[in-house]
Amino acid sequence: MIKITTNIQKANLITHCGIFHADDVMATVILEKLLGNVTVCRVFEVPQTLKSHVIVYDIGGGEFDHHQKGGNGIRKNGVPYAASGLIWKRFGLNVIKKYVQHTNFNEVWDSVDKMLIQGIDATDNGVINNSNSQVVSTMSICQLISNYNPLWDGDESYDEAFVKACRVAEETFSNVMKKAISSCKAKSYVQEAIDKSSNHIMVLDKFVPWQRHLYLSTNPKAIDIWFVIYPSLRGGYNWQTVTTDLKKHIPMKAVPKEWCGLKGEALQKVTGIKTAIFCHDGGFIGAAETVQDAILMVQKAITS
Q1: Residue from 24, 129, 126, 118 nearest 79 by CA
Q2: Contacts of 179 (CB under 8 A, 6+ apart)
Q3: Is the pLDDT of residue 134 over 70?
Q4: pLDDT digits (tens, 9 = 90+) for 29-57
Q5: Interatomic CA distance for residues 185 and 178, integer angstroms
Q6: What gap in Å lies between CA 263 and CA 215, rounded to an integer?
Q7: Is the Cβ–Cβ distance between 208 and 186 less than 8 Å?
Q8: Which of 60, 86, 90, 280 has a beta carbon 3.0–4.6 Å from 46's, enabling a disulfide?
């Protein structure tokens, strides 16, 4: 639970007052996950003497601030640290260990950092342009949290708004961490499927998030996989092309153009596969009613 106090002697967390951003809000949420109940005092200036257990962040120029000259460190990929990243770097593993067991803690930490924390840090440091376009705008977590700041013509206090923003950030953080943990658990399934793969095809007996684990695999068989087949949530079995990397949408092997955009009988006639269901217009995913026919479809694509 996050409480706000104006009495600095009652606080165990101190950050800046006034307008808040995603980095100080998310840092507060991470510390709440670590400590449980926290009491935050939002100030203009940090007192010279504080109790030893008090954590100060995003203000004061200390270990968890990044506003001093030269900043406060940069990741190997060039993304500089903001308050959220500094707090996550210091306490993230302890947060993960508090909530999960028997997993790769470092991998979960890295996933959360990449999926959530780095984007917040980059935006706060001006590395990413977080402009509010009036033509079209993709709402980011940073914009979402920033929008909780009080309106110029409203009467809500900044402290009240800060707590509301923390609630939203807490739900986002929890969801991202759950996803990171789930993805980490999927690694063993993907590794086993890579070992069993043959003729450029990997088959999963259940759907798990496979892309990241496949692309990062050191198994020499991984680079030879062009298609992945897995049970569809809609029934039947999906096949999906493997792309040359995570960022580009260039398939290792493209399916025949005449398949693209077809479904049902039209697709069955072109492919010769009795239970073919559909092929996306982009050609990157398709389906058949049985795993055997899904395999036949990709085999035909491979030899086309």
Answers
A1: 118
A2: 111, 115
A3: no
A4: 999 999 999 999 999 999 988 988 999 99
A5: 11
A6: 30
A7: yes
A8: 60
Give the Cα separation of 119 and 75 in Å (integer). Answer: 12
216's CB contacts (< 8 A; 6+ apart) are none
> What's phi and psi for 224, nearest 5 deg?
-95, 0
Q: Considering the entire predicted model, what is its pTM?
A: 0.82
pLDDT above 90: residue 244: no
Mean residue pLDDT across the chain:
93
Q: What pLDDT, on a 0 to 100 scale, did the predictor assign at position 99? A: 85
Q: How far is C-alpha 137 from the chain's CA centre?
A: 20
The pLDDT value recorded for residue 129 is 65
Using CB atoms within 10 Å of the CB of residue 276, give its burial: 0 to 12 exposed, 13 to 18 middle, 19+ buried: buried
Burial of 110 (0-12, 13-18, 19+ CB in 10 A): middle
Q: How far is CA 264 from CA 5, 269, 292, 300, 302, in A?
A: 63, 9, 17, 17, 21
Instruction: Report yes or no: 131 and 122 within 8 Å, Cβ to Cβ.
Output: no
User: Which residue, chain included where needed, has tokens 């977080």?
Assistant: 130
Do 227 and 204 contact (CB within 8 A), yes or no?
no
Residues 221-226 have a mean pLDDT of 96
